[in-house]
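Something for you to look into today, if you have time. What I am after is a single protein written out in full by you. I want to see for myself how the chain folds. Could you add the entry underneath, on a fresh line?
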Amino acid sequence: MNKLPKLTVAVSCLAFNIFFAQNKFLSPPPFDEADLKKMNSLIEKNAPAEILYNSMRYNVLNDKSLEKEYYSKIKIYDKKRSEDWLNINIPLQTDESLSRFEAKIYNLSNNKVEKIVIDKKEQLKENFTKGLNIYKLALPNIADGSIIEYSYKVTSRNILNPVYFLEYNIPVVYEEYNLEYPDEAITYVFNTTGNLIKPKYHISSTEDRLGSLYNVFRFGYENIKSIQKEKHVKDLDRFRGKIKPELKRYSSKNFVYDGFKDWNDVAVKFRNYDDFGGFLKSNIKDVLPENIKTYYEPSGRADKIFNFVKENYKWNRNDGVIASQSLKQLLKTKSGNSADINLLLIMLLRDAGIEANPLLISTVDNGILNIISPNFNNLNFVLASVKINNQIYFYDATSPNSKVNLLPERDWNDFGILLEKDKGTSISFSNTNVSKKEFDIKATLDIENNTVKGTFVRKDNGMYAIDSYDEFEMNKEKYKQSFPAQYNLDSKNVESKLLADGDFETKLVFSENNLMDVVGNKVIINPLLFLNADKESFDQTEQRVHQIDFISAFNKEKRIELEIPENYKVVSLPKDKKIATDDEEISFNYKVENVGNKVIITSGVKVASQNYPKEYYPFFKQIWKIVSDTENQVISLVKK
């Protein structure tokens, strides 16, 4: 007797929930003046902004084109802390076009609503970077309390990756994801990576559209907290909650794709692709100089072939696991995507009698590779794997300063898929190298003019040298302008060069008048000048969520030589300091010497591993507090 009413209530609630969800999806709420008067987020009281409503719709049409429709409504509470939300950014791939755009800005002035409408996409500023057209718009008249509302529509031929992130650095009141595609030609499966966030509303159905059956998936989410930003994380996107449908089946008149059963199936199908296996079978006769091809020692021969490719072929900054052109075109243009460059390296190594195979990876910014679920969509880069005397070596010829087993930061993303004929094997690999930065300052004190003048040299080694040189090669002028800004210097005399041993050196001349305090006859100055430890602080107050990831073990060494004027003398020096953890994973050494009219300071930090569990954070926090306190000590000078 008592159970029937409960069951009736449950069924009624379920029916209401389905009815509510069906009417909620794809129904942006009308403007509400109450949102303008809202003083703070109810999800996170101190949030600088919040997303009131987000809607993403992916609609795959019968001709296999894709429509992406996006709508967003954002509330700004504190403009100064909302820098990421004061601009609109619309990224488009090369095969996509923007067909509709509209933006509205609402403000409340003297209890009256003011609305600004921007409906011409020509007002968007176009910027091309790394294979993307990014349309940008700096929004006008944004103030504390503003509401930003914008929408756009994109048409595309790329149906591979309809991914949508659910978490941001501000909270979300409501957001939804909609995926619709024809049932007969396409099948997606949902693969969850990052934080698991369950939808409050969910519809999965099949609809008849002009005689074609469509699969429809709709997910609605409410009251999502912001994701915590943390330093020393490879890429926060790999941890963000997201919806990630993966294409498992695709058919058209000329092509059928039926997913991958396992990584061996990947190896077989890749070997049969014209732009992969077919590319690797191309004729490369007479490409490699004979003196390199016949070099007597295998590892030396591999290195020489590697250097030959780096010196003669340039990466165009486009990722890829499939060749973008024929070998003939590559040999002519001498430029290509990551697959073009590293598949060529593999071919030349094989032609020289060295066992070489492709290693497919997902770069750090592409997200962690799910090795449990074989999928073409998760891979975006090719490396070369070489076996000599049963020892495995890795090469990446897209980076001009990389070396064997010494790869750019983007490559160290934990997992890869090694393809050996019809065999595909998932492997884990990590950076066991130690990278180094050396900072050297030679300076003189011009106390009469309250100025410190000198030269500053930074020498990068290992992975640091690879990434710095890559950045320099990409845009030399931008690098020279940005380098002084890292240290809050105003110098324009910047010189950078690659040294013979592969280290990358940058040198500048500086003259600064804000580095010492002169009070009467007394001078107080931090001898580390602009190199104190505050720039690398471990100051997180919230509980650590992710592991601490430096990608490379490292040494950072600073040497400062200050020349004291002859009419001044040193009356106090900082105290030396030397500490280390019991396991010697982290160590710090600080030493000060007064030699004649010079003060010489050396300060060094060593971290022995490339990553640490999050439980190690208190140790880093404690030691970096000691480093910071030590490096912020001052010296005192007085007139003789």
Remarks:
- The first helix runs from residue 3 to 24.
- The chain has eleven helices and 37 strands.
- The longest strand covers residues 97-109.
